[in-house]
Each structure stands twice: as structure tokens, then as C-alpha cells.
Amino acid sequence: MQNLLQWSLILASSLLLLWIAPWAKDKAAFFQAKQQGKAPQTWALLGSLVISWLFAKSITNAANLGYSYGLVGGVAYAAYYLSFAVAGLVIYRLRTVGGFGSLHHYLNDRFGRSALWIFSALIALRLFQEVWSNTLVIGSYFGDKWSFEFYAAILVFTALTLWYSLKGGMSSSILTDLIQLAFFGVLLIIILALILPKSAGGISTYLNSGEWTMAQGGNLLLLAIIQSLSYPFHDPVLTDRAFLSDPKSSRKAFMWATPIGGLGIILFSFVGIYGQQQGLTGASDAPVFVAESFGLLMMLIMNFIMVTSAASTLDSTFASFAKLTVVDMGNPRKVSVSRGRIAMVVVALVGSLPILLQPEIITATTLSGTMVMGLAPVFLLWWLKAPPLSFYLSVGIGLLLGILLLLELYPESFVFNEGKYAADLVMNAIGLVLCFLGFLLPYWWTSVFPSSAREKQQLATHQNFLQAK
Fold first, then answer.
1. Distances (CA, A) of 304 to 143, 157, 184, 386, 434
2. Whose CA is closest to 323, among 303, 287, 347, 354?
3. Dist. CA 375–CA 181, nearest whole Å
4. What is the pLDDT of residues 1-10, one digit of tens each?
5. What is the pTM of this model?
6. Taking the CA atoms of the chain, what radius of gyration do you get in angstroms?
7. What is the biggest distance separating any 2 CA atoms in the chain, rounded to whole angstroms?
8. d(CA 420, CA 440)
9. Can you say how many angstroms the Cα of residue 10 is from the centroid of all Cα atoms in its chain?
10. What pLDDT, on the 0 to 100 scale, is given for residue 354?
11. Cα–Cα distance between 128 and 395 in angstroms, integer?
12. In this predicted model, which residue has the larger pLDDT, 406 or 301?
């Protein structure tokens, strides 16, 4: 009976979104979400940002961290939502002061075509990762991990989400995001209404849970703050939305999305905190065994909130990959809606393949955040007329340290604190300093010793720019 109802939910919600999703008649509608020449309004952009980052994997991670560390775990994961503020402010300046129309425009202008290809490869990897890391969560509600039912749910969910995404591209993503955000808000309220009364101390029990120490979540909190300086720039699901509306509306949406998204994560971590306090255990993720403890109704609600959040991220991933491959990196004369739809099918298929390797979803956040730390100086110091070598050194250092962390080839003596994520924190803190040095050293060298007429001209232009500021 439970499986039948769960399948009914996933089918009904997907068919509803397919019916609601607009049909993109031109490139502006498919790639830029423009309907009759009008860009998305601030509130629509805000809602889309929030729900697109309240991934199924994110709220699952939040609950798991709440289970492991109490409120500290939820706050630590919510710190990643500082990424909205960082990206919003930087991209606002790129658009208004720099005059750039996209991150790709900026990179190509400052560092050349090769840097553009490297950056595109990084964000393509991110988009592939978003597919498997979110659909993995959906499968866990339909059967044991790696079972036939598990894989079947992933296959059907991915296909249905792809179906309505093909219809309207970015227009479909923005509109359906608002529906999905409404569902998410209502379902979260219902979940909190079910778990809060079960605790003797009420909400204070949740607010006082956990220990504010490095070993009990503090490592992840500092890691999230550090990674927020670079993390947003390799996620086109986030950055693409910064160019859909006018600069001021976009900045406003991004700034409001920071506290709203963070609050959503903290509140969902209450699910894990409840499980911890009630002594619940299970082989699956915290939201699953907490829902099972309440029975069928809670299981259906939890299933639906995961379907809602995963679908919002997945359709945004499809839209962003289409824009990346067809608009940002494609031939301007060959941009078409049909090419965008083909790109969506490709990312859905290739992005699902890692599931066969049985990965863990938390890896999708911490590891990728380390490997792209080199993007921090590239975008935070955007006004510096740095040479291409600055980009390569900074990004290269980040990639190297990410690989060393993955292979655990770092000196253990460097890890001076205890607890999970201790090594991640140390490697990211050291790495961020090295990335900034790698970016700045070539800039300083060319500023002091301009070796060509072009570099002299760049230096003169940069000095005029600073004087103008």
C-alpha cells in the first residue's frame, strides 16, 4: 500500500508540473526565462533561488547533521547559504561596474579561451553531480539502497522531471520552482507540527541541542564559511539566475535568499535532532527512519518533500547545462531550443551513471567545494587586471589540493584539531591562502615588470580604472 501511494505521489506531482510548465517558443524563453520579453520579477527569482538550493541532498544532509551534532550541524550546513550573498554582491559589481553579461564573458575577456574551457569543465562536473546526488535521495524512499525498487524510482523520477523540463527550459524551471517552494513550505510546517510536540522541552530542546565544539560540528561550520567564498561560482544553477533580471532586482533576490534558505536548512535539521533525542536508528538517512517511526502519513509527507526539492534542483540543472553547452560555450549562430533539449537529455543520462558506483551524497558538497577553492580570488578580486597565469595557478592549486584530500595524501601533522571534517577544514584554510597567493603573485610581477606593450597598456588601463573608482 505504501509503495503504491508513493508512486502515485511522484507520478501525480510530475504530471501536474508537466501540465503547468509553459512551452518555450523561442530562445529567450528557453534560456533566459523571458515571457513576452519580460524578465522574471524579484519575488519569482527569490523563490526559484531558495528552492533550487533546498536540494533533496541538502535537506537530507541537514537532517543527518542534526542527528549527528544537534543544532550545530544544522547551522553548519546552513552556513553554505552565505554563497547567495557572496555571489549576489560579486555578480552585481561584475554587471554594473565591469559591464559583463555572464561569468563566461568575464573569464574570456580577462583570462582567455583556455580559462573559459577549464571553468566550463568544472561547472559541467558540478551539474553532472547534481543529477546523481539528488536522485539518490529519491531512491532511498522506495526501497533499500541499491535494490531494484531503488533504481526503478530513480529512473522514473529522472525521466518525468526531464519530460517537463524539455517543454520550457529555464521558463519551466522558474515557474515550477514557485509551485515546488509552496509545496515545500507547507510540508515543512506539517513535519515540524508533528515532531515538535513530541519533545518535552518544546523548541528549546532543539535550540539547546549539540555542543559548540570543533569536533561536534564546528569544523564543518568553519569549512562551510570558507567554501562559501568560492562554492557559488561553480554552480550555474545559482549564478545563471543572477543574470535573468536587472542587476538591482537580482542583488535583492540573492540577499534575501541567504537568510531564507539558511533558515529552511536549520528547520529541517530538526528532523535529525528529533531522531537523535528519541534514540531512533536505521540503516538509511535520518529523514527516512524518522518518518518510518511516525507511520504511513509521515512517510508520504517526507517522500513528497524530497520529490519536490529534488525536482526543483534537477530541472534547474537541466536548464543550466543546456545554457552552458549551447549558449555559453556554443556557436552563437547555432543557438537553438532543439540543441538545448538535446543537451538536457545528455546530462540526464551521463549524470545518472555515477549511481552505479554507489557514492555517498555528502561527498558531493565537501569534495567539490575543495576542488574549486581556486575560484575565490578569480571572482572576488575581479577588478584586478591579472594575467592568465593568475587564473591557472589559483585554480590549479585548488584542484591539486582537492585531489590530495580525496586520496588522503596530506601530512597528518597538518591536522591540528579533532573530529570529522578536521582535515577538510585545514586543507581548505591552507589552500585558500595558497590560491590567493597563486593569483596575486603573477599580478604583482606584471605590475612591477610589465614585459610587453600589451601588459603596459593593461597596467595603464587598470590604474585609470582605480582612479575612476
1. 15, 12, 9, 48, 44
2. 347
3. 30
4. 778 888 998 8
5. 0.90
6. 22
7. 75
8. 32
9. 23
10. 86
11. 20
12. 301
